[in-house]
Amino acid sequence: MARMEEWEEKDSLFLxxxxxxxxxxxxxxxxxxxxxxxxxxxxKKKSVxxxxxxxxxxxxxxxxxENALYKSALEGNVTAMIFWLKxxxxxxxxxxxxxxxxxxxxxxxxxxxxxxx
Length: 117
Prior knowledge:
Blueprint: H1 4-7, H2 10-21, H3 26-33, H4 37-46, H5 48-74, H6 78-88, H7 90-93
Helix pairs in contact: 2-5, 3-4, 4-5, 5-6
């Protein structure tokens, strides 16, 4: 069975960071480590080096995907453009636009319809 201290060593931390950078989920990383996903979650709470290694690896991947999405949008990929705008400018590009209606004015109530007048 794996021990947390073994995974806090430099080479092991590098491996964790690499797996996270390659896009593996934490469940997959835990499987590679020979532990359960729950154990990895507990180790992340207890071990700053393990937590930071996983975080660094994920950040690299996230930045690479963000850059690829941005580049794809600039190259004319309409789906990438829509995705980018909906997430970066939701005030202008969300599917559901908010409308403001002023109901503070006078309201006339009609209580009969078709009385012949």
